[in-house]
Design brief:
The structure is a single chain. The chain has a three-stranded mixed β-sheet. It is mostly helical. It has one domain. The longest helix has 28 residues. Strand 2 and strand 3 form a beta hairpin. Helix 4 runs antiparallel to helix 5 and helix 5 crosses helix 8. The two termini are 24 Å apart. The protein is built from 15 helices and three strands.
């Protein structure tokens, strides 16, 4: 049965659905892989391999797409609305997402009722970016575009500024450009995993990108620019990354094997997202939108379901993955309480040696996505049939 007819732009929902599915792979790996709770991260050249690194790299596309399309959705939502109404919606939704990140998302990630470790991740970033966008939309679009490009192309010039300590200036710098954390009272640690400055640039560009999808936009004109910008961004990535002259905290280098050299080349900085990181993620994403524009089949219908209920899917999939990890511990007769996570658990290394093979991770990922599909489809149908319920726009 095909998805319900909707005025939403299907290619955008297909893209969003695809990255939602990919995102689940990363989070299953976080909870299930043998190296997830050790120093053997997928980016560690000493311990990784091309398959493990590729499993991590493909999920780099998730956060930029979420933030970019949040801006695009804001533009499309506000097409026929006064700027004041759009601004109010963005600010209220932004505040809601910040609340969700701190209170709800942190709980389902760690199951720690004491909130000993508060991590501000992508939901936080989208929320604050919406707050900023809600104030900036009053500016002319050319100014918004200029600000977005300036931030994305210029923020790496600030990489040399390194703060330490817990002064107000340091905390603000952690919040906007340096992925770090601070202790907040006894037994509590707050980490800014998604520094905001470059993400603000991404949402501003996403907002301007909405021009290509407005009601009277020419499909030919849109596809021409999708192809042009997508190719240009991808070529610029290989040029800038190849010469190592600007755009990332970690330059690549030749390694003892071709495999490790490839990993080094593509091991770009996500926290905060570097210029080359944004180029190699959003560039191919625009090319995907170019090619998917007129494709309609069972696979796109499958992805549409997740793309139309992204927030619902996000919260539900983390909860199910975390519960699944606890069940895994119970089945292997290990201490399930290890999956009630906090900062002390990581520091102490209690989870060293826990986990499963990458093959098992992929099997669990597929099973969870298939489990979530009928649930999300049912919610999608409910949401489509109850558009008069204003609160559904926050879920």
């Amino acid at each position: 049965m095909p998805p319900i007819k909707s005025k939403r732009i299907e290619s955008i929902d297909i893209l969003r659905g695809l990255v939602m599915v990919i995102m689940a792979l990363d989070h299953v790996r976080d909870y299930f892989h043998i190296n997830a709770f050790s120093d053997n991260y997928p980016e560690n050249l000493e311990t990784t391999n091309i398959i493990l690194f590729g499993t991590r790299f493909i999920t780099h596309y998730c956060a930029p797409v979420f933030v970019f399309l949040a801006g695009t959705s804001a533009f499309l939502y506000g097409q026929n609305k006064p700027k004041g109404q759009l601004s109010k919606f963005l600010i209220s939704r932004g505040l809601w997402l910040v609340f969700v990140e701190i209170i709800i998302n942190n709980f389902i990630w760690w199951f720690d009722v004491n909130y000993g470790f508060i991590q501000l991740q992508v939901i936080w970033a989208i929320g604050v970016c919406m707050l900023v966008l809600g104030l900036i939309i009053y500016l002319p679009k050319r100014i918004i575009l200029f600000l977005g490009l300036l931030i994305i192309f210029g923020h790496n010039a600030l990489d040399g500024i390194i703060k330490q300590g817990d002064s107000l200036g340091s905390i603000l710098w952690y919040m906007f450009h340096q992925a770090q954390g601070v202790s907040i009272g006894q037994g509590h640690f707050l980490r800014f995993s998604y520094p905001l400055l470059p993400w603000i640039g991404v949402i501003l560009l996403g907002y301007c990108f909405g021009e290509f999808y407005k009601k009277d936009a020419s499909v030919t004109f849109r596809k021409k620019w999708l192809l042009y910008i997508g190719i240009s961004a991808t070529v610029l990535f290989f040029t800038m990354r190849g010469f190592n002259f600007y755009g990332d905290l970690s330059p690549w280098a030749y390694q003892e094997t071709k495999e490790k050299t490839i990993i080094s080349f593509f091991n770009v900085t996500k926290y905060p997202p570097s210029l080359v990181y944004i180029l190699i993620t959003l560039g191919p994403v625009l090319l995907f939108l170019y090619f998917i524009e007129s494709i309609k089949n069972a696979a796109t219908n499958f992805l549409l379901v997740f793309g139309r209920v992204p927030f619902f899917y996000y919260i539900l999939h983390v909860l199910i993955i975390h519960i699944g990890a606890i069940i895994g511990l119970l089945l292997t007769r290990k201490d399930w309480k290890l999956m009630i996570l906090d900062n002390e658990t990581f520091v102490s290394g209690k989870l060293q040696g826990y986990g499963y093979s990458l093959f098992t991770v992929y099997l669990v990922w597929i099973a969870i996505v298939l489990l979530l599909y009928p649930i999300c489809k049912k919610y999608m149908t409910y949401k489509a049939n109850n558009k008069d319920k204003w609160w559904l726009s926050y879920l």
